[in-house]
Amino acid sequence: MRPAVLFARADSIYKTMDCDVWDAERDAVKWPGGAPVVAHPPCRIWSNFAHMSNAPFSEKQLATFAIGVVRKFGGVLEHPAGSRLFSASAMPPGEGLPRCGDRDAWGGFQVVIEQWWFGHRAQKMTRLYICGCQPKDLPEIPIKLGEAPCVIGDVGRATLGTKRPEISKPEREATPPLFAEWLLEVARRCTRPVAQSVPPLT
To answer: If you write DSSP's letter for every residue of 10-52 in order, what string do you get?
Structure first.
């Protein structure tokens, strides 16, 4: 089944691939459902620097909406590895995301990957929440050793004690083509987990 990509950038690489792309103009919240998804909900208000963001609080609900969609139709949600979305306190009791190595009531599980393995020029650790398939059925992950040629932001450079160049904000936010293809293949391998309703945005 042709996957849907929710919360994509306007210039997303997904628009060159075989999928149904929903960016800000189409409004992912209006997606009618019916297919597995790759969800990239906004993360800035879930980050450790949320206090510095001017994003409206309503933006925070897009991630919890995306969780509901993944649980209803199957697929994968992508967020930074350090996102507070994965904290046990981020969701109501019984609805939070499982810890790595555990499963939740929808059969969902976490996978942590490094986008550098998929062609990102900087190391960018990412956490995935997947429903609708088994870990053994995931596509091969191209793990590689070493260090990326670039870093993300001055903080990354200072922390790593390196003089490697910093990438631009658009490049930081973009999904590497190989990673986009991998996420779409994950979605294609997912089936509808359990009939659950998608929580409304309130």
So the answer is: TT-GGGGSSSEEEETTT-GGG----S-EEE----GGGSTTGGG
